[in-house]
Automatic annotation (TrEMBL):
GO terms for biological process: cell surface receptor signaling pathway via JAK-STAT; monocyte differentiation; positive regulation of cell population proliferation. This is Interleukin 31 receptor A. Coiled coil: none annotated. CDD domains: FN3 (cd00063). Gene3D superfamilies: Immunoglobulins. Residues 1-18 form the signal peptide. It is found in: Cell membrane.
Length: 883
C-alpha cells in the first residue's frame, strides 16, 4: 500500500512538471516494467497541458497489444491521470498502449513494453581452466531461464588452512550477462587456496552459490607443443623418429604426459604412443616402429600435467615417409586396340594402375614399357614414362608387352599382355551378358561356354566418350558376376559394358552391351515432319533423339494426331521405327501431330507440327488426266489429218462448181440498174455482145497431169470448143438461159466443153483477135509472172466494181502487157486464191503483142469461183467483131 502511494506521488509530480514545461503531451509510468509471471500490473497514463480542458483523463482508453482492456479496470486519478490494472499477467513480453478517444476518434498517446519472468536460481557446476600467466576462465550453470535481464558476478576468494573464508578475502570479481567470466593477466596469481563463488541478480531478486575451492594444478592447460622434426633412420626400415619441444609457460617442477598420434596417408585410422616427461626436459624424442615400408605418415603431439584434467591442443601436423623398398606387386595393365591405319598398322593404347595393396609400394618414380614381336624377341624396344598411359604404334604382327613400376629401391614384377595379330580371329566364349541394379550396386552377370576359363576383364566407359584412355576396367577371377558401387557411375548416362575372357596369355572376343545405372524421361522429344502427303493418309517421319538427351533406352514412340476441331488419336510404334503411315484421314483437312519418345522412366513429347491432307490423290488426278489427254490427243490428230488432207477434204466436202456470176459475156450499159442482177457485162467498142459468144469453161484435165500433156490435149479441145461455140451462137442449147436486162442479153452456159480448157491449175490468156484463127496459137503456155493478190468483197461491191470498169475501160482494166499487178489478199474470202498465172503465146505476131490491149477485157482477180476455182472469163465480143 505504501508503494502505491509513492507511485501516485511520483506521477502527480511528473504531471505537474509536464504541465509547467509543456514538453510532452503524455507519459506512462512505470516505463518498461519487468514483473513476476502471473502477478498484477498497474500502469498510469498522464496527459500533458496540450489536452486540457477539451480532453481529460476520462477520454483515456487502454489496450494490451491489440485488445481493448475492459472499462472496469480503469481508474481516473484526476483530470490528467488515468490508471489501469491488469491481473494475472502471463505474457513473456507484451505492449500496453494508452489512447485518447475524442469525437469518436482514437489517438495513440504513449505505449510501453512489459516483460514477465522469474527470480534467478542459485548458480552451480562451477569449473575453471587456468592458462599459466595468461588467463583464468570459469563457467557455471544458471538453472531455469528467468526471461529477465540477469547479471552474474564471479568472486575469487581465499580460504585458510581450515577451509574457512577469511573476512575481506575477496581478491577480485568479474561481472557478466552470460554464464562465463575470465580473469586476465596480470590478475591471475597462482595459488592452491582459492575458492570461487557466483551470484545471480535481477529485478525480482538474487541468489548466490557456495564458494567452491579449486586447485590451480588441477585446472592448468598447456599450450600445444611444437614438433621439431620427423626423420627416418638409414638402413632401418619401418621406423620414424619424432622430436618435439615442451611449452615454456607451464608450472615448473612437475611431471607431464605427452601423446604422439600418427597415421599413414592410405588409412583413416590413427595410432597413439604415450611418453612421460618432466617440465625440465625442453626437447623430447620418440621412435615410431612397426610402420609400413615406403609409406608417408602424418604426426602430431599433445601434453598434459600429471595432476591436471585438461590436455593441451594437438600440435601442428607434420609428415614424413619411411624407408623405401622395391614395389612388390605388378601393375594392373589393360589395352585398347585401334585399327585406324592402312597396311595392317594399328595404335595400341596401354593403360595401367597400381594395385591397392597394403602396404603400398611407396613413391613410384616411373614405368618401364618393353615390347617385341612374338616371333622375334631380339627386336625388343623400351619406353620410359612417368604417366600411366602410352600409345604404341604396332604393325600387323602379334606382340608381347610388359610394364614394370620402379622406385629408388627397385622394380616391381612385370605385368605382361599379348596383343594379337591382325589376322587372328579370337574365339567367342561369352554367350550372353545382362546387367541390373540394386539400391547400392551395379551388377553384371554373364554365361561362359568354356568352364575352364576362370579369369575375365570387365571394361566400361561412357557411350559418348571418345578418348580411349578414359576407360575403366577390373580383373575378375573365379566368378561370372561383377559388382560395383553405383556411385562410380553417372546417372542418366549410357555406359558401354564389355566382358573379355582370358585364357592363358590370350584375350578372347568380348561381349558388349549398354546399360544405364539410373534413367529418367528424355530431355526432349522428337520433331515430327511429313514425308508423303495424300488425300486420306500421310507418312510421318522423325529423327532419333541425340544420345546425350535420351536419359535411358527408348522403348517406343507414340504419334498423337488431331484433326482441326476433332478428337485426338494416337498410334504407338517400336523404338527402331522412325517413320509411320497414318491412314483413314479426312481429305482436305488440317491436322496437328506431335511425337512422344518414351523410356522406362517416362515420356517426353516434341514440338507439334501441322499439315493438311490433299483434296485429290495422284490416282484421282490420273483418272481425270487420262480422258482429257486422250481427247486432246484425238483432237490434235484430227487437226493434223485435216491439214495433211486439206485438198481431199475440200474435194469431198466442197466440190469445184464454177460460179456463173464470175463470167461476163455482154456489154453492160453504164446506167443500167444492178440492184437485182448477179451478172456482169463488159463493153467493147460500144457494142453489146451476148453470152452466145462466151461459155463457162470446166476443167479440161485433172491437176495431176503434166504441163506438156495438158497443153497438147487442151489445144485439141480448144479447137473443138471454139468451132462449136462459133457455129452454135444461133443455136442455144437447152441448158443455156437467156436473160434480158433492158437491151442487154446475157447467156449462161454452165456445161459447155470450152470450160474444160481452162483448168485452175493451168490458167491461160486468150487474145482479142479472131477467135477461130487465133485460139489454137493463144493457148500456149505463157511465162510465169508475179502473183497477184486478190481482194474480194461481197456481191454488191463486185457489181459496183464492174460498173466502174465499164466507165473507165482504158484506165481500170488489167493490161496484158503488165501482168505483175498486185492486189491485196482478202482474208474474209473462204476459198480465195493468192496467185494467178497469165500465159502469153510466143507465136502471136508482133503487132498483136504491141497493139493496145483495149479490146480484150480481163476480169479483176477477185472475180473467181467462190469455191476456189481459178479461171479467166474472156471478152469475146472483140473477137467476133474482128471476124
Amino acid at each position: 500500500m505504501f508503494s502505491c502511494w509513492i507511485w501516485m506521488f511520483i506521477l502527480l509530480c511528473g504531471s505537474s512538471v509536464a504541465d509547467e514545461n509543456s514538453i510532452r503531451d503524455a507519459d506512462i509510468f512505470p516505463s518498461s516494467p519487468e514483473i513476476e509471471r502471473g502477478s498484477t500490473l498497474k500502469l498510469f497514463c498522464v496527459l500533458g497541458k496540450h489536452y486540457t480542458p477539451q480532453r481529460n483523463a476520462s477520454h483515456i482508453i487502454w489496450k494490451l497489444n491489440r485488445e481493448l482492456i475492459a472499462q472496469e479496470n480503469y481508474n481516473i486519478v484526476n483530470e490528467t491521470v488515468s490508471s489501469v490494472i491488469i491481473h494475472n499477467f502471463t505474457y513473456n513480453k507484451a505492449h500496453v498502449k494508452c489512447f485518447i478517444k475524442y469525437l469518436g476518434k482514437e489517438q495513440l498517446l504513449v505505449h510501453t513494453e512489459v516483460k514477465s519472468g522469474f527470480p534467478p536460481d542459485t548458480p552451480g557446476n562451477i569449473s575453471c581452466i587456468y592458462y599459466f600467466n595468461v588467463e583464468l576462465t570459469c563457467n557455471w550453470t544458471s538453472g531455469r531461464e528467468t526471461n529477465l535481464t540477469t547479471i552474474y558476478t564471479l568472486y575469487r576468494k581465499i580460504k585458510n588452512k581450515q577451509g574457512l573464508i577469511m573476512p575481506d578475502s575477496e581478491l577480485s570479481s568479474c561481472r557478466s550477462k552470460t554464464e562465463s567470466c575470465s580473469f586476465r593477466h596480470p590478475n591471475t596469481p597462482f595459488s592452491n587456496s582459492f575458492c570461487f563463488q557466483v551470484k545471480a541478480q535481477n529485478v525480482l531478486g538474487e541468489a548466490s552459490s557456495e564458494c567452491v575451492p579449486i586447485a590451480m594444478e588441477n585446472i592448468e592447460k598447456f599450450e600445444p607443443p611444437e614438433i621439431l622434426s620427423i626423420k627416418k633412420v638409414a638402413g632401418i626400415k619401418q621406423l620414424l623418429t619424432v622430436t618435439w619441444k615442451i611449452p615454456e609457460d607451464i608450472i615448473p617442477a612437475q611431471y607431464l604426459n605427452c601423446q604422439v598420434r600418427y597415421r599413414n596417408l592410405y588409412s583413416n585410422s590413427s595410432e597413439i604412443d604415450t611418453v612421460a616427461v618432466t617440465s625440465e626436459e625442453k626437447v623430447v624424442s620418440l621412435n615410431l616402429t612397426g610402420l609400413w615400408d615406403s609409406t608417408e605418415y602424418s604426426v602430431d603431439v599433445r601434453c598434459i600435467g600429471v595432476e591436471s584434467k585438461f590436455w593441451s591442443e594437438w600440435s601442428r601436423e607434420k609428415t614424413a615417409s619411411t624407408e623405401e623398398k622395391a614395389p612388390s606387386e605388378k601393375v594392373d595393365l589393360w589395352r585398347i586396340i585401334e585399327f585406324s591405319h592402312p597396311a595392317g598398322n594399328r595404335s595400341v593404347h596401354l593403360i595401367w594402375k597400381l594395385l591397392s595393396n597394403i602396404p603400398p609400394p611407396g613413391r613410384i618414380l616411373g614405368y618401364k614399357i618393353q615390347y617385341f614381336p612374338e616371333n622375334n624377341a631380339a627386336l625388343q624396344m623400351t619406353n620410359i614414362t612417368a604417366n600411366k598411359k602410352i600409345v604404341l604404334p604396332l604393325n600387323e604382327e602379334a606382340y608381347i608387352i610388359s610394364v614394370t613400376a620402379y622406385n629408388s629401391a627397385g622394380n616391381s614384377p612385370a605385368a605382361i599382355l599379348r596383343i594379337p595379330s591382325t589376322d587372328e580371329k579370337p574365339p567367342e566364349i561369352i554367350e550372353t551378358v545382362r546387367t541390373y541394379t540394386t539400391n547400392e550396386e551395379m551388377i553384371v552377370e554373364w554365361i561362359s561356354s568354356e568352364p575352364e576359363v576362370t579369369e575375365y576383364v570387365v571394361e566400361w566407359y561412357e557411350e559418348l566418350e571418345t578418348d580411349p584412355f578414359i576407360r575403366s576396367w577390373q580383373y575378375i577371377s573365379n566368378s561370372t558376376k561383377w559388382k560395383a558401387n553405383k556411385k562410380i557411375f553417372k546417372p542418366f548416362v549410357c555406359y558401354n559394358m564389355s566382358v573379355y575372357p582370358l585364357y592363358g596369355n590370350k584375350v578372347a572376343a568380348p561381349y558388349s552391351i549398354q546399360a544405364y545405372v539410373q534413367e529418367k524421361e528424355p530431355s526432349e522429344g522428337p520433331v515430327a515432319d511429313t514425308d508423303v502427303l495424300g488425300k486420306n493418309e500421310v507418312v510421318i517421319k522423325w529423327e532419333e533423339i541425340s544420345k546425350d538427351k535420351r536419359n535411358g533406352f527408348i522403348t517406343n514412340y507414340t504419334i498423337f494426331y488431331k484433326p482441326e476441331g476433332g478428337k485426338e488419336l494416337n498410334e504407338t510404334v517400336n523404338s527402331d521405327v522412325l517413320h509411320h503411315r497414318l491412314t483413314s484421314l479426312q481429305a482436305n483437312t488440317q491436322y496437328t501431330v506431335h511425337i512422344m519418345a518414351s523410356n522406362r522412366a517416362g515420356g517426353t513429347s516434341g514440338e507439334p507440327k501441322t499439315f493438311k491432307t490433299l483434296k485429290f490423290n495422284k490416282e484421282d488426278i490420273i483418272f481425270i488426266a487420262i480422258p482429257v489427254g486422250l481427247s486432246m490427243f484425238f483432237l490434235l490428230g484430227l487437226w493434223i489429218t485435216c491439214i495433211l488432207k486439206k485438198h481431199t477434204f475440200k474435194k469431198v466436202c466442197w466440190p469445184d462448181i464454177p460460179n456463173p456470176a464470175g463470167s461476163v459475156a455482154v456489154e453492160w450499159p453504164l446506167d443500167a440498174p444492178m440492184n437485182n442482177s448477179f451478172l456482169k457485162g463488159v463493153t467493147y467498142e460500144d457494142k453489146t455482145v451476148g453470152l452466145e459468144d462466151v461459155s463457162v469453161l470446166e476443167d479440161c484435165f485433172p491437176e495431176e497431169d503434166h504441163e506438156g500433156l495438158l497443153l497438147m490435149n487442151c489445144e485439141k479441145h480448144v479447137s473443138e470448143c471454139t468451132d462449136s461455140n462459133v457455129n452454135g451462137v444461133q443455136n442455144i442449147s437447152e441448158h443455156q438461159i437467156t436473160l434480158l436486162n433492158g437491151n442487154k442479153k446475157i447467156l449462161y452456159n454452165e456445161e459447155h466443153e470450152v470450160a474444160k480448157c481452162l483448168s485452175p491449175s493451168m490458167p491461160y490468156v486468150i487474145t482479142g483477135e479472131d477467135f477461130r484463127s487465133q485460139m489454137h496459137s493463144a493457148l500456149i503456155p505463157a511465162k510465169k509472172i508475179q502473183p497477184i493478190e486478190m481482194l474480194e468483197d461481197d456481191l454488191r461491191e463486185t457489181q459496183q466494181i464492174s460498173v466502174k470498169n465499164e466507165k473507165s475501160d482504158n484506165e481500170e482494166a488489167l493490161k496484158l502487157e503488165d501482168f505483175s499487178e498486185k492486189t491485196l489478199f482478202n482474208p474474209y474470202l473462204r476459198n480465195s486464191v493468192k496467185t494467178r498465172e497469165f500465159l502469153i503465146s510466143e507465136n502471136l505476131p508482133e503487132h498483136s503483142k504491141n497493139e493496145p490491149k483495149k479490146q480484150p477485157t480481163v476480169l479483176p482477180a477477185f472475180q473467181q469461183n467462190a469455191v476456189g476455182q481459178s479461171y479467166i472469163t474472156l471478152d469475146i465480143v472483140g473477137l467476133a467483131t474482128a471476124h
